[in-house]
Amino acid sequence: MLRFVIGLGVLLMVLGFGAAGWQYWQGIAGADRPGATLPPVTEVWLGTATGTIVPAEVTAAFLQQDRLVPRRIATITHVAPLTDLLRDAEPLPAPAFLEVMADIRAPLLAEGFCPVLQDMIAEDCQIHSARVVAGSVDAQSGTAQFRIELAYRLKPDVADLPDLAEQVFGSLDVEIGVAPEVVPGNTAATALAAVVEAGLLACSADSAGYPCRIIGLTLDWAPAVPFQGVATVGWLSPLPDGVLAIPEIRTLPEG
Hints:
The protein has 255 residues and is an alpha+beta fold.
């Protein structure tokens, strides 16, 4: 009986996370959404002010704002009570089954973060993965650490893109470390909102070009301790004086 219960738990985990992953990759591999005007990212290249080529996955995260792409992810690692995973008056399982239960129910915790992104920067948000961190279950305190990855599409810009041939790409990791009493409510969701706000503030600075977009987020949160977060922003700026736009060199096909 014990073997059956554990086996069933593993099967449910595979089915649950497989469904979330399938939904995510459907968004990446799907056809162009209405209103998309950019060519496939493989036909677009961006350069930096120092003359280097921006990696394709970063270019996709910045330019393909109307799609879900692998690089544009919000990663949230946070500690939560195991009781948040229960339904109604459901009791916690025996300690031996706590980690399996936490892994199966982790997507329930992820649902609270997409509304934060959609209120601030995202047109759409989907759960890429939601897992308990192995070995993090604390039966005595009744808590565990969870790692959640969200893929999101960005809200459309109010103005058209400038001519990419006359622009260079810049980026910045905006780091934020905040004491818990500074953020109202002191929850993982309000902390995520603070990290997004830090990215938006960086985009509004005079040093940032246009468009400026948040192309990645990370948050590490636990109750009653300072949280750490990073908002990765990218923007376009006019070519510096003396810099020429040179297309990427490609190897010609044989024959």
